[in-house]
Amino acid sequence: MGYELRVVRESPLAFAELARAIAPAGFELSAAEEIVVKYGDDTHTVGRWRGQIVGQPGSDWHLAQLVRLSSLLGGRLVGEDGEVYALTDGVVELIGGGTATEIGKFDEIIAAGPASW
Fold this sequence. Notes:
By secondary structure, this protein is α+β, with helices and mostly antiparallel strands.
């Protein structure tokens, strides 16, 4: 099992609310309650519904998709160690220990695709 990131919100997210909210942004829910998005001709899992959204990104692209999803749902993307991943002025950042570290420009990360780390 890899490093898990969770979408954290002030109010709980109901499954029906999730399904309604993600569709306009191009995300889909699979029968296995996976949140998927297409890139080219392929579909990629970016998270899973487990009473909340949990993801284990395998690339910057997956991470950027999770950040986008958390923003769409009015939440924050939080790692196991309490760090937060955010989108600030078009840049994906890791915020922890009082500092922000730039991961990359969102548009460039999405354009590069889901190549694994």
